[in-house]
Amino acid sequence: MKLTDIGRTPLIELASLSINGGRCFSKCEFLNPSGSHKDRTYLSIINGLEKIGAIQPGMTLVDSSTGNGGAALAWIGRLKGYKIKIFMPEGMTQERKVQIRSLGAEIIETPKEGFLSGAVLAARRYQAEQLNEQVFFLDQSNNLLNKAAWADCGEEIVEALRHQHVVPDFFVCSIGTGGAFSGIAEVLKCEYREIRTVAIEVNKSAPLYSERNNLTFEHRPHNLMGLGGGVLSTNTVSALVDEVRVVDGNEAWVRMKQFIEHERVPVGPTCGANLLVCEEVALTHQKKNIVTVFFDSSWKYASRWDGFYPEYGGVDDAT
C-alpha cells in the first residue's frame, strides 16, 4: 500500500435504505489502507505541517486515539520516517492495538476514568516534558488540518452523484472530532444549497445536542468508540449542522450486525449509527436522497463483538 492509495473510495447505493421514493448512498471510507477514514485525516495533518516546516522526518509524533486514528498515524508515519506514540484510553479493542504495534508505533495506555480527554492530557504532558524540540503533538481534535482533509472527500461525493444525476437532500453523519462531518458538509452545502445536514452523537456523550437543546452536558461511558470523546472539538463547525440527533450505542451495534448479515458489507459500529438515522430520515420523508459515510471496518471490533466494554461501566447487551 502507498500513500496514493488513500481516498477515491467508492460511493455505493444502499438499496435496502432507498425507500419512500428516495435513494441512499454511502462513501466507503473503511476501504482506505489502514481500514478507516483516519488515513485522510493524518495525511492532511502531516503534509500540512511539513509544508510549513513544523515537523520533519526523524521527529516523534504523538496523538491521542481510541484506535482508528492511531493505526492511520502509525502507518503514514512509518512510510514518512517518523516515530509514533499513541496515547490511548485503556480498554480499546485488541485488534486496534495489534495493528498499531505491528506498524511500529508505541501505545501508552491511559486510565479509563479520563477516557479520551485523559489521553489528550497525557499526550500534551508528554510533549511538554520533552526538553528537545523533536516531539510534536498533532492534536487531531483541534488541528484544523483535520477538517481540511475532507474537502477532497466532499468533492469526490459531488463527482459521483453528478455522474448518477442525483441531487442529495440530506447528509447524515456521526461526529467524533467533527473533521469529516464539517469538511464534507462544507463542500456539499456549497454545491447543493438546499441540502440539510444531520449530525449524530451517541446519547451518552452528546455535547452538541446538549448545547442545542439547553441541556447540561454530562459525559457517560458508552460503546461507540470514535464518538463521544467528552468534548466538542474545534473541527466541529456548528454552523454547518442543521440538526443533531442522538443514537443508543447498543442499537447501533445491533444495526451494524444486521447490515453485515444482509448486505455483506463489513462496516463498524459507528456505521450502524449512521444507518439508524438514515432510516429515520428515509421513513419520514418522501422522495429524498440521502448521503452518509461508512467510517471503519468490522474486523477492528472482533474481540468486543458483543459490544461489551467492561472498563466503561458495563455497556453491553449489543447482541
Q: Can you tell me about this structure?
A:
- The two termini are 35 Å apart.
- This protein has two domains: 3-35 and 145-312, Rossmann fold, CATH 3.40.50.1100; 38-137, Rossmann fold (3-Layer(aba) Sandwich).
- Residues 314-319 have low confidence and may be disordered.
- The strands form two sheets. A six-stranded mixed β-sheet has the order 1-2-10-7-8-9, sandwiched between helices. It has a four-stranded parallel β-sheet with strand order 5-4-3-6, with helices on both faces.
- It is α/β, with parallel strands linked by helices and 319 residues long.
- The radius of gyration is 19 Å and the shape is globular.
- The chain has helices spanning 38-51, 68-80, 94-102, 115-129, 145-148, 150-163, 179-191, 207-212, 249-263, 269-284; strands spanning 11-13, 24-28, 60-64, 83-89, 106-110, 135-137, 170-174, 196-202, 243-247, 290-294.
Question: What tags apply to this protein structure?
Answer:
single chain, 319 residues, alpha/beta, Rossmann fold, 2 domains, six-stranded mixed sheet, four-stranded parallel sheet, 10 strands, 37% helix, globular, disordered C terminus
